[in-house]
Amino acid sequence: MGATHKISLWMEQLGDSLAPRPALTGDIEADVAIVGAGFTGLWTAYYLKQQAPDLNIVVLEAEIAGFGASGRNGGWVIGEVLGEDRLLAGLDPLARSQSRALLHDIPDEVGRVIAREGIDCHYRKGGVLYCAARYPEQESRLRQQLVDWRAHGHGEDDYRWLDVAELNQQLRLATPYGAVFSPHVATIQPARLVRGLAACVEGMGVTIYEQSRVDTLGTGELRTAHGRVRARWVVPAVEGYASTLPPLGRYQLPVQSLIIATEPLSEALWQEIGLEHGQAFSENSRQVSYGQRSRDNRLVFGARGGYRFGGKLRQDFQLSPDEINLRRQLMVELFPMLAGARISHGWGGNLGAARRFQPHMVCDAGHGLAWAGGYGGEGVGASNLAGRTLAELMLGKDTLLTRQPWVKTVASLGRWEPEPLRWLGYNAIIKSFVWEDQTLNNPASPAWQRRLAQRLADRMESLMR
């Protein structure tokens, strides 16, 4: 099991509990066949079993539960979804308020489930600090974001400005300019959650086959190298791995997130840093840096992902020295007191990005197909929402969950452009972000250059929408 321990810090902390379940051999029938034992697949199985206990549900996993992004992420459970303001803009005030409440409740719903099912995943609902740091333009951008949140109906209890003194009470950065605090975020040990969910749904009667890679997806049927499943419903819950199951790759492209973790830090260092109550934090550049304090007192720090030509999956996430050093430099720039801290782990994962950078939840009853994805780095929480939503869609219910704007038809999904357009677009956008960050982080940059860098990055960012 040594190789699986290299998946991430989170999976390594599980020790010897990663022995794979038996693989599928032979042909079977089921009511629901789910591809992928990650958060989306397991949440869908959980909520289906809650509402329809007699359903025969099987899950087919190519590796082991949590091998994908669910066991590799930064451990944030966010009470929002990517592109939320655009998704809700067309709703009337009452519907918009109901949708916001539904989203803000995501961390609490996860908390309710883990309490009810006894899953110890280090859940802490300490909120999040969206920080302006490193250069003053981050403050003006973050204050404008707060104005936008207010315009979309979010109140002081949802997003609140913290001046430098208030920020310093929670988190102490090298060059703070202020922050926005939101209570609608929890932090977890994600591998503990995904593995705990797998055990939970097994206890509810779901069968999980591991090391059972699905190579063919058809109407009412899945095939692996050694078996076949016929089912009324097929649920490809593969997110960043959509390219392995055509035609899903038209709608969800894999991008990579990369994360490092320090060795456990001393209490003296944590008194210098803060984060005493499980808060998550991020730095408000366009290439967001983010992190949390783990239960065993490490700083887990992510920044600067990537995309490969043709939407190619990255298989090897043993980070290179350059990849680790870039993230270490960003971390130390924010927290100079960590200059001597050892980086003990570096890892990453493939996650899914949708063309309009918004999540989607799709149910095609005619073809017996349901899926969700496009979480864009916010999948720990969004997958819980997706699991609840897919379950109710598949059961034919008409509820608040099923009437949300992220519930789509196949025809309404945005398709990614062919290569080389994707590759050229990605690199143009990233290069503009890098130039902006380098320009604004240099106090000697003239005012005209700083304005130009921001305008160019604004324009390039608009292409993502």
Quaternary state reads single chain
Total strands: the figure is 19
Per DSSP, the total helix count is: 13
Class per helix and strand makeup: alpha/beta
Shape: globular
Largest sheet: 8 strands, mixed
Low-confidence sequence ranges: none
Strand content: 15-25%
| Helix proportion range | 25-40%
Main β-sheet, spatial strand arrangement: 5-6-4-13-14-15-12-16
Radius of gyration: 22 Å
Describe the structure.
The chain has 465 residues and is α/β, with parallel strands linked by helices. It is built from 13 helices and 19 strands. The chain has an eight-stranded mixed β-sheet, sandwiched between helices. Helix 2 runs parallel beside helix 8 (190-203), helix 5 crosses helix 11 and helix 12 (421-440) packs antiparallel against helix 13 (447-462). The longest helix has 20 residues, at 421-440. The protein is globular.
List keywords for this structure.
13 helices, 23% strand, eight-stranded mixed β-sheet, alpha/beta, six-stranded mixed β-sheet, 465 residues
Strand-helix topology:
Elements: H1 9-12, E1 26-35, H2 39-51, E2 57-60, E3 76-78, H3 84-88, H4 93-104, H5 106-117, E4 128-133, H6 137-151, E5 160-162, H7 164-168, E6 176-182, E7 185-187, H8 190-203, E8 207-209, E9 214-218, E10 221-224, E11 227-236, E12 253-262, H9 267-273, E13 280-283, E14 289-293, E15 299-303, H10 321-334, E16 343-353, E17 360-364, E18 369-373, H11 379-394, E19 407-408, H12 421-440, H13 447-462
Parallel strand pairs: 1-2, 1-11, 2-8, 4-13, 17-19
Antiparallel strand pairs: 3-7, 4-6, 5-6, 9-10, 10-11, 12-15, 12-16, 13-14, 14-15, 17-18
